[in-house]
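User: Here's a chain of 235 residues. Predict its fold as tokens.
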Amino acid sequence: MISTIISVMNRTDRLGTILPSWANFDIIKEIIITDWSSNENLIENQQIKDLIKQYPKIKIIRIDNQEYFHLPKSYNLAFNFTNPEYPFLLKIDVDYLNINESNWLDNLLPIIKDDKYINGINISKDKSVSGFLLIHKKNFGKGYKENLANAYGADDIDLYNRIEKNISKLLILDLNKYIYHIPHTDKLRVDNYQIKELNFNKLLNNQIKEKNIDWTPQEYKVLEDTRNYIKVDLA
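Assistant: Prediction complete.
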């Protein structure tokens, strides 16, 4: 019922930590991971190989020759490869660990259906898991605006603002009872980005409020396609 998408660049250790906690959900039918030019190809990492063997629902999409991480393009690319037979989408950051052994995701789908969604932006900034999104795929629309590079969360805010023009957010869930955000420094957060300055308000003003910001979908060509691995060349 659920397609899960994750994107990573040089965070293999965190990916290896969180994957089992999500792959154990029966309701998650596939986990699509965009490997955005990590120094070590994920498919060649022994821990990831072992996890794919244990959980065949995991698929890696590899993109080479990208110097900097690009969250909007990487998640949109993962979404493009999800199976349309699964109507719901779960988008998570690579440092989100499921800490609840109940079938809490199963219980959410009958509530959100196709007219509500859940994101992880909470009132408390310290407890925010803004990279969490659970939604019916039809409401994901065109996805992220791909020219919102280096937005450090502003890309998520923009996406949620557009979604809420059509459907309402479900406000009854405290995600911190279910998800642990593995801590990281600001240096680690911006390490793979071209812009190293963490100025959220400035990015919001300069990017989201620009009149000319729109979708610029990335064209790509599939070079290799196997059961658990797809290699893509970006145009």
